[in-house]
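Appendix B. Worked example

We walk through a single record from start to finish. Start with the input: the chain for GPI inositol-deacylase, Helianthus annuus, length 1076.
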Amino acid sequence: MIGFKAKFRLATIVVLSIGIALVAIYDLLKPISNGCTMTYMYPTYIPISAPKSLSSSKYGLYLYHEGWKQIDFDEHLKQLNGVPVLFIPGNGGSYKQVRSLAAESDRAYQGGPPEPMLYQEASLMFEGLEIDETNIPILNQYARRLDWFAVDLEGEHSAMDGQVLEEHTEYVVHAINRILDQYKESQDARVKEGAVASGSLPNSVILVGHSMGGFVARAAVVHPNLRKSAVETILTLSAPHQSPPLALQPSLGHYFEYINQEWRKGYEVQNSRTGAQLSRVIVISISGGGNDYQIRSRLESLDGIVPTTHGFMISSMGVKNVWLSMEHQVILWCNQLVVQVSHTLLSLVDPETGHPTSGPRKRLAIFTKMLQSGMPGSLSGRSDFHQQSPRLPLLKGRNFFGSVRKNITACPSKIRWSDEGLERDLYIKTPTVTILAMDGRRRWLDIKELGSDGRTNFVLVTNLLPCYGVRLHLWPEKGTSMSNSPLSKRVVEVTSRIVQVPSGPAPRQIEPGSQTEQPPPSAVFWLDPKDMHGFRFLTISVAPSPTVSGRPPPAASMAVGQFFNPEEGRKEFSPKSLLLSVFSQKDIFIKEDHPIVMNITFSINLGLLPATVSLETTGCGIKKSGLPVEEAGDMNSGRLCKLRCFPPVALTWDPASGLNIFPNLNSRTIEVDSSPALWSSTQGSEQSNVLLLVDPHCSYKTSAAVSLTASARRFMLLYNSQIVGFSFSVVFFALMRQANAWELGFPVPSLLSAVESNLRMPLPFLSLAISPVLIALFYSYLSSKSLPSVGSFFVVSMICYLIANGTVIVLVLTTLILSHLVARIHVFFKTRWRWWILDLSTSFFSFKVTRVINANPSLATSLLAIVLVYFVHPALGLLILVFSHVLCCHHALCSFLTASSEARAEDLFGFGSGIKKIESEVGLPVDDHSSSSPDSTRSYGDTQLEMFHHRHGLLILDLLCLLMFLPSLVAWLERLSMSHNFPWLLDSMLCMGIILHGICNSKPEFNVFFQIPGTRGYEIRQGFVYMIAGYCCYLWGLDLAPYKAFYAIAAIGVVSFIFRIMERRNRNSRKHSHRH
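Next comes the structure step. The output line below is what the pipeline stores for this chain.
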């Protein structure tokens, strides 16, 4: 019996697990505000005929046309001469999802490139070769339109089944070849009608894949049937690359590993076919950020698959002109992102050839320039969290000397305003400079004087456009005119170092001439000591305010700059304060005249514990405002501060999710889509840094409170695969305890009691829960892999292990309650209508087929299950195995309940002998030494109870396997009406091993796993094997590959089957020798 402490321990774990799950579900169901604008279109889908030789006729290929007028499909195909782009939908997606991208691409082609912004562009440099941005042409008109094709994959769920994923890959390869053939057919048709062939035919197709379609695009590139150089550019939207979103099915996980291994080998061995093909392929992965609950940024990363010279991953929050996190499906129609992607793909077209740029590095430079913000490069090394992204090879350590100086460009001559247009110069004597209007003045800042006392960095935040509204120069000495000497010798213009940041809506002016609220900043300019070395002065020139006749002047302009000491702006939220903030928020007060840049450190990663950060203005120097005292006292303090203080901006940077910018920060939950505390995480990922750009004239109260609902959601999304793997280890450890109890002659404990025993402190929990974590860390150390942060890795692993225990306990309790309920109902009716049931069972068991199955129940079960596994679907075979466990558990429990009933009930119905008869008919073991006496009856009941506990443990293990295959079964049922293919051999073989394990270890007396031939006493016991299997499942859970638990179960099943055959042969040979 389980005592009170054990029950309390189990109840606590169950409540913890259910509580976290319910809170996570609650947060997942809450609506998300993403800020995206809807995209509108007039779609037409033109079918592309497939050759008759194509075996898979259920899929289709379509060409998109934008326009409301009806067109002739054949004539439209004849005029096909653009750049082919193939859209691949994701899991359960439709080919019609291409409409947003295709429609905006058509509008972008007709409207032409957007006016170039003069903010700093993201730049990149490879080892030994610098990409000069001047080599990337600035286009006035795009060379050729994009022809958007889309594959119709019938809305199949490719994320649920590896075979579906492989079939999609094969069809995409056919579609790519078919698209290239269609261009040849279109040109031949035009020539046949008398047209002159102009231009060369395209020899490659740009692939754009959403969700699983992005992985299908990469899989198609390494497919042997793909034509050489048929794909050179891949753009994926919210696509998993590292592993499946739910790594449940073995064949699905194996296919991911195979494709990723082919890509790794392709880049390592360039002289092979795959290597030569991949050397020109560029892969860009765009993630949806924290709002994408289906695919996390960690899965979308290209690290370890595609080198930084051939691709990178970027979050939609860091995409230029987008700055938004979006849901999994929203990323397809979010107008801000769709427009940027359309212009990016059109920019790839070489104006000379009319085809995508052939050089992979130049294509990567175009993607970097069009998508990546200049922020990570410009803030490199400024604070602890501003480090270079491992996915994007940005320039490091920029200065204005040497070879890099040529990249600092001046403003275009057409928008340059001369010194004569400026009013008198202003000489700033304080470290902080404020600009409240376009006053046409130039401000001089003495770097040596203002940059003393540790104020070695300069930051300017503004809403003025570079070159159009503000210009900045570094001077080696004081000068009166920039024309006295050549620009390269006297002064360096650094206006192009201004970096764009997202800004909220500008404040409206109530009436002409009235004062408005401070507008939000839209740009940041940052100089560090290396940038200012060798210069004495920094000048900030503001353009004169434009006047428009009959209209009020424009909204307020602003610019605030400051020389500051980065160390003075560091604040920290400790782990204790963050955990306590769940109940009461933690406040940090920032006084006036503070640094303009505040670096707030969160000791616990915001990807694990998202925090709601509030920034409240508490003061803005009202007494120093210059207003009359009575007016300042009557005016609302908050409104006055809005007139004086610009809206704060928060920036975060994470190696996994990249740059995140939060404009107009008032009160917002800051969530970083990172992956801390994983086995693959690196040191330093346990904390997050938030950079706040705040007005130095104002004082603030900064508050942080951990969001409990968001934290629960993040935990379940990040570590669900880890919890699934740990669940297998929990069951294996429970089976180990049952096997050890049988070996030592003790009663077989229930699965619930075994799970509780493994949770006891210190020895069981230390050896089963903590030891695998230490083994994982030791393995990382020996293999020279990056070690995760030990503290967070250990804590998160323990929480996942406890949740896995809670999950198994809930599953065990559910099956126990159902088993007892059905068994008691069965026993109740059987004891009252015994003779009618016996007559019915006698007539049923008289059938020949029933007699054969009843004589060999294990053989019949295994044959039926294996046939279903190999020829129908593995889940159906596992279902038969689970059903056999259910029947055995039911009969054993019924026998126990009947045998343990009152003696008067047994004497009344004479059920003692009937039990054995019925149990022998269903193939359950019967104690030959039992009799009709009370003592022997109780012994028989105990035996049946032990049988129930043993088969119940196998039931839970095989039920977990069945649940792992349920998504694949759903995908198979959806495709059942179209066609039927045999299951993957890998899935079938593993499930056959699971069936052999369930059959060969169906009785607790099968406790010897393997015995070394020719020896006695050298046996490998079942308990030891279950412990090793539990450790393996634990480590596979840490590796986020829970499907590998099938390998452990199948291996045990195959070895057990071989040993049972050897054991039976030895028994038969001994019998034969005795006869002689």
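Two observations about the output. The chain has a mean pLDDT of 81. Residues 790-832 form the longest helix (43 residues).
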